[in-house]
Amino acid sequence: MLLEVNDLHVFYGRIEALKGISFNVNDGEIVTLIGANGAGKTTTMRTVSGVRSVAQGSIIFDGQDITKMPPHERVKLGICQAPEGRGIFPGMTVRENLEMGTYVRGGNAVEKASDLEHVFTLFPRLQERITQLGGTLSGGEQQMLAIGRALMSRPRLLLLDEPSMGLAPMLIAQIFQIIKQINSNGISVLLVEQNATQALRTAQRGYVLETGHVVKEGSGQLLLDDPAVRAAYLGG
Amino acid sequence: MNLTQQFRDITRSVTYGPGVLSKLPKSARWSLGGMLIIAFYFMPYWPNVPVLGWIINTPGTSFENVLTDQIMVFVLMALGLNVVVGFAGLLDLGYVGFYAVGAYTTAVITSAHGNLPWVASLPISMLVAMLAGVILGTPTLRLRGDYLAIVTLGFGEIIRITANNSNWLGGPRGINNIKHPPNIGPLKFTVLNAKPYWYLGLTVILVVLFVLHRLERSRVGRAWSAVREDEDAAELMGVDTFKFKLWAFAIGAAVGGLAGSLYATKVAFINPDGFLLQLSILFLAAVVLGGTGNMYGAIVGGFLVAWVPERFRNFDTRRYFVFGCILVLVMVFRPQGIIPRRGSAAGPRPVEGEAQ
Fold first, then answer.
1. d(Cα B332, Cα B309) in Å, to the nearest integer?
2. Continuous H helices in B141-194
3. DSSP letter at B112?
């Protein structure tokens, strides 16, 4: 098991956002967390990447307890998040943004070049924009940049927070295709999505979150077929 | 296309001159830079040059003294504050505190409570200021934005008020007889002759510029940009944001301490009135005016903020009106500063109206 989250409790001030969430991600898997706004999806993601601290519970990555580890050290272990929305560096060029992804590994020019090459095969659009400033890209391109930047760190577990948010329908299909492609290279993916149908089709397993609890879990297909899930998240 | 826009386009083409410069062959750039540096070493003589002299000279005060007591200090302070505000994006409103720590350290160890040689005062002042930066930064750099600004504001005042109320630091009377640098050949460091201090100060500025330039291009510099652009994203990319913010604070403080030390040795006398809050604001104005995040901008900004009020001294108290007008005009026509940092227009706090 690559990631194991046990009984996670997280507070924002006095409000309990996560009320004992448990889930896991196996090596090589795509796992999705779905749920309505405010269910705790993003909080869960931020807790796994380490930006939010944990009140109770534990996070185990590859057999190591990382519950109290600061985020920048988790990156070294191979957990990398592409943050929600515009989490890129707006004043840096596309190239500089991507190179920030290799920050933890230090500078090996050859490795960097081949990683860049790899990102550009996934996102040819980024290559066209390589000298442009991140802040001047369109929303979809910024999303690609955030994912590409995370890939540059050579993660073992890629955390994707709402990768389809604000994208045109055609781009959404493309992004999910790319997620599958990334996964086929051996990178495990934890995916948080509002777009539940697409997410469940892409993922091997899924968890349904409701107001800080996991209310259902199972394979992607099982959840897609579940009448209650259909009614609540997939539009009937 | 309105008038403002036209003005911007004109000024833009003027200040993107450095961009054109970078296209010149290396040898041409080096010789141009070298000539500029030599010209700056002759700056105390600039008032004797026709036309340029009329523009640059400061009526009513000795230009030499303006050069050392104001311009040298402001350029160094702007360079140091630019590390904190421009590179790492941390708003520090109490930067005068480090200047004071540097000046008082030099005063204490060479006059009030010690008799150390002048050479020792520079590194010791830098170290003490750096330590002050770490002490202030360790608890406060967990704060962000406005909160950090308020805490640093308090720090600047604490240092000044402490000096004012401490007999050991001379209280309101301050400390005098601060050591001058020893004479080097024909260079006589006395109160009456400011030129040698300018040669010393300019040399220090060049060294600081070189070191900061290297830092900016290094891994540390990249971490600073990432923190400035988006602190959360930087952390998620594996940057130990707290550590690098603390480094920015410490290095900024060291440069501030250096400026304070140089100032103290030049004027030989300091008291708490030389370290008012107003200075922090002016240092920040210098950085923003010149172009936050651009060192050459900081130098130009530091020069202008120091020189303009002296140039218009014969306007009496209205000289600050002139100064204010110039600040407003620059901010209208060049919202990113006189020499903007590349990418600053796409930064985290975009100037929305500018795109139209």
1. 20
2. 145-165
3. I
Q: In whole angstroms, give the CA distance from residue A68 to residue A53.
A: 7
Positions of chain A with pLDDT lower than 50, given as ranges: none
Judging contacts by C-beta atoms under 8 Å, the chain B residues touching residue A93 are 343
CA-based nearest distance B227→chain A, Å: 9
Residue B170 forms part of a structural domain:
yes
Which residue is it, tokens 């996070």? A59
Residue B230 maps to a domain: yes
ipTM score assigned to the predicted complex: 0.88
How many domains are contained in chain B? 1
Q: What is the pLDDT of residue A167?
A: 84
Please report the sign of the dihedral spanned by the C-alpha atoms of residue A184, residue A185, residue A187, residue A191: negative
Q: What is the dihedral angle through the alpha carbons of A65, A68, A70, A76, rounded to the nearest 10 degrees?
A: 0
The residue of chain B with its CA nearest to that of A83 is: B233
A10 Cβ contact partners less than 8 Å away, ≥ 6 residues apart: A16, A17, A18, A40, A43, A47, A52, A53, A54, A55
CB B263 within 8 A of CB B77: no
Residue B121 Cα, gap to closest chain A Cα (Å): 37
- Residue B84 domain-assigned? yes
Chain A residues touching residue B241 (CB < 8 angstroms):
72
Q: Which residues contact A56 (CB under 8 A, 6 or more apart)?
A: A7, A8, A9, A20
Interface of A with B in 102-131 (CB under 8 A): 103-104, 106-107
Beta partners for residue A18, in sequence order:
A10
How many CB atoms within 10 Å of residue B356? 6
- Among A49, A75, A89, most B C-beta atoms within 10 A, so best to mutate, is A89
Domain coordinates in residue numbering, chain A? 1-78+156-236, 90-154
Please check whether residue A75 touches B, CB under 8 A.
yes
CA atoms within 13 Å, Cβ hemisphere of B331: 12
- Contact list in A for residue B233 (CB cut-off 8 A) is 83, 87-89
What tens digit of pLDDT does each residue of B204-236 get? 999 999 999 999 999 999 999 999 999 989 999
B341 to chain A: closest CA residue: A91
**Confidence at residue B17, expressed as pLDDT on a 0 to 100 scale:** 46
**What is the interface size between A and B, counted as CB pairs within 8 Å?**
91
Which residue of chain B comes nearest to A87, CA vs CA?
B233
Residue of B229, B238, B344 lying closest to A104 (CB–CB):
B238
Range of the domain at B182: 59-273
What is chain B's Cα-based Rg? 20
Q: Note whether B354 contacts A: Cβ–Cβ < 8 A.
A: no
Helix (H) or strand (E) holding A109: helix A109-122
Residue A140 is predicted with a pLDDT of 87
The span from the CA of B88 to the CA of B282, in Å, is: 19
Domain A1-78+156-236, second-level architecture: 3-Layer(aba) Sandwich (3.40)
B31 in any annotated domain: no
Regions of chain B short of the pLDDT cut 50 = 1, 13-17, 347-356
